[in-house]
């Protein structure tokens, strides 16, 4: 945004005119005065003596005086006219300056809002990176536990903490990859993260592509990840690897689909197949088709309605669409939606494409790491518990109340809420829940989980509103505390959720495992409680969470706890016994998909 700062400069008016001195000489009966003009040097030798003048001279002098007086009035009139004009100019300039300052302040305000929104988008992109990282790590570990060999290939991000990588080393061989008409060298690093073999690709000539503060959020993101996608395939071929499945994620690596089938399948990868997982179908960057040539693809072959041409902006190419079209299987991550709902209601312009390829489309829920989140084994809890023996949960509640100095009573309904993104939260609904709950002596514990994706100011505003209620049963912890996080899960009856689909923190899944009901803050939870006619191929998790807790508002949950405790306890105990970890349904769905595409 270009801001033009308009300023006014100081100015003065210089109006040259001769100095005028009025000299009056009065005689008896003489009432007229004379005006004398001097050259400004004080010489008055030209002054006329009235007493020695004749009548003619007196008349002439009077006429001269009258004439001079008229000239003076004319000059004064001219001066005042110039002065008034100057005043008008000054007022006009002041008005222009005021308008300019107003526009400048408006521009500064708009810039501030824009910068805040850019920051939000950047943080959202980092949140997406965490989402994918959580999924890749969790699923990869689950797959390896079931006897599969998994290797992950990543860019070597400059922001990466290499201390988390075990045995990292640089390979001696330098691998070359094609980009923008030339071959470019890449360093290859290998190591182990969470028991998973990891390969990092570090561009040499285009070293700035990934040597940045953030993983995503730059104007050249398409070029960056196109380079990585081509380099990854070049590395796989030249290193002699022959994977059964190339599992790619989101639009950042969606271009691997077209690259694989148009270029690499004949280079020793005839037995490999492509599975594309879409974590966020809304993110669909559109590019000029000519850019596809950067990685060696032919834009004229790909820019077609049945390939990469965007369904709405037909002059542009849609990389996400390319990943769907060119993959053998497409998995969309959702813990609450069915395949039909995604195609018809959540496709963000890709309904035609998804419907055309629906036979290879599948839906997978998220999972969570059960080894770290299990109330029977959780070492952070003061006492462990299970669905068969819930005494430990009451101990956890008392410990939580003591830690936060809440009124101690194991029979009080305790509600936890973890805030990670306020953009999708109806703040008025949340405040209403707190107001209604505190009237019934319900305890509320709010805790933030890392940097907010919707802005710190919005969080602070919410905190002020909640704390202004001045209720002894409300606590707001504006920091992340891992120990307290476990204790809140362990001591709560209800966990308020921003959404029942939470791929980053997996709050609803952890809540159910710890015997706390996940209840959406907004009563309709973006339509998750509605089951349209085209709901088919729904995951086990979606069916369970929607039918058990998805239809409940917060007030309905309180009503059931108070008036139908046996039914409530049955739901909670049943949820605790379900396995929604990475090793369960999520892993099974992907293993089935891998097996299916290997036979193609």
Automatic annotation (TrEMBL):
Involved pathway(s): Glycan biosynthesis; starch biosynthesis
A single GO BP: starch biosynthetic process
Keywords attached to this entry: Coiled coil, Glycosyltransferase, Starch biosynthesis, Transferase
Reactions accelerated catalytically: [(1->4)-alpha-D-glucosyl](n) + ADP-alpha-D-glucose = [(1->4)-alpha-D-glucosyl](n+1) + ADP + H(+)
Its EC number(s): 2.4.1.21
GO molecular function: alpha-1,4-glucan glucosyltransferase (ADP-glucose donor) activity
Coiled coil: 101-131, 452-479
Highest taxon in the source lineage: Eukaryota
Pfam families listed in its UniProt record: Glyco_transf_5 (PF08323)
Residue stretches making up the Starch synthase catalytic domain: 132-355
Protein name stated in the entry: starch synthase
Organism: Cucurbita maxima
């Amino acid at each position: 945004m270009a801001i033009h700062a308009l300023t006014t400069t100081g100015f003065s008016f210089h109006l040259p005119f001769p100095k005028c001195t009025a000299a009056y000489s009065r005689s008896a009966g003489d009432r007229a005065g004379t005006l004398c003009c001097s050259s400004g040097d004080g010489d008055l030798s030209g002054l006329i003596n009235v007493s020695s003048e004749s009548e003619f001279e007196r008349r002439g002098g009077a006429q001269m005086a009258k004439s001079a007086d008229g000239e003076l009035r004319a000059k004064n009139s001219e001066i005042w006219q110039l002065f008034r004009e100057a005043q008008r100019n000054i007022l006009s300039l002041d008005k222009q300056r005021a308008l300019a300052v107003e526009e400048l302040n408006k521009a500064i305000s708009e810039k501030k809002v824009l910068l805040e929104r850019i920051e939000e988008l950047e943080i959202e992109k980092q949140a997406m990176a965490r989402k994918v990282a959580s999924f890749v790590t969790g699923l990869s570990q689950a797959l390896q536990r079931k006897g599969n060999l998994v290797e992950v290939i990543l860019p070597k991000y400059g922001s990466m903490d290499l201390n988390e990588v075990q045995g990292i080393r640089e390979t001696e061989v330098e691998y070359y990859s094609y980009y923008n008409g030339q071959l470019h060298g890449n360093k290859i690093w290998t190591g182990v993260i969470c028991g998973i073999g990891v390969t990092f690709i570090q561009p040499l000539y285009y070293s700035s592509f990934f040597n940045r503060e953030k993983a995503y959020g730059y104007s050249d993101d398409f070029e960056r990840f196109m380079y990585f996608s081509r380099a990854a395939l070049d590395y796989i071929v030249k290193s002699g690897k022959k994977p059964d499945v190339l599992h790619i994620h989101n639009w950042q690596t969606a271009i691997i689909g077209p690259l694989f089938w148009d270029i690499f399948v004949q280079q020793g990868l005839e037995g490999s197949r492509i599975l594309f997982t879409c974590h966020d179908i809304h993110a669909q960057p559109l590019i000029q088709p000519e850019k596809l040539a950067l990685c060696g693809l032919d834009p004229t072959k790909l820019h077609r309605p049945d390939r990469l041409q965007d369904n709405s902006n037909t002059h542009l190419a849609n990389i996400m669409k390319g990943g769907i079209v060119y993959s053998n299987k497409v998995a969309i991550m959702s813990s609450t939606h069915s395949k039909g709902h995604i195609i018809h209601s959540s496709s963000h312009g890709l309904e035609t494409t998804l419907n055309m390829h629906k036979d290879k489309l599948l839906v997978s829920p998220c999972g969570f790491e059960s080894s770290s989140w299990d109330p029977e084994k959780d070492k952070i809890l003061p006492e462990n518990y299970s669905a068969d023996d819930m005494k430990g949960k009451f101990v956890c509640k008392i410990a939580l109340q003591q830690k936060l100095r809440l009124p101690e009573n194991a029979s009080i309904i305790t509600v936890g809420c973890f805030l990670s993104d306020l953009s999708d939260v109806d703040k008025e609904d949340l405040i209403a829940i707190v107001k209604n709950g505190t009237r019934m002596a319900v305890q509320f514990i709010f805790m933030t989980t890392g940097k907010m994706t919707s802005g710190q100011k919005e969080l602070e505003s919410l905190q002020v509103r909640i704390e202004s209620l001045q209720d002894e049963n409300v606590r707001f912890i504006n920091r992340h505390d891992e120990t307290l996080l476990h204790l809140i899960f362990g001591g709560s009856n209800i966990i308020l959720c921003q959404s029942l689909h939470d791929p980053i923190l997996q709050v609803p899944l952890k809540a159910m495992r710890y015997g706390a009901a996940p209840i959406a803050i907004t009563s309709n939870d973006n339509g998750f409680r509605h089951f349209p006619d085209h709901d088919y191929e729904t995951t086990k998790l979606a069916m369970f969470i929607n039918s058990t807790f998805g239809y409940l508002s917060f007030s309905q949950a309180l009503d059931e706890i108070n008036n139908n405790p046996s039914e409530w306890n049955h739901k909670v105990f049943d949820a605790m016994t379900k396995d929604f970890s990475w090793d369960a349904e999520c892993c099974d769905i992907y293993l089935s998909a891998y097996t299916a595409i290997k036979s193609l």
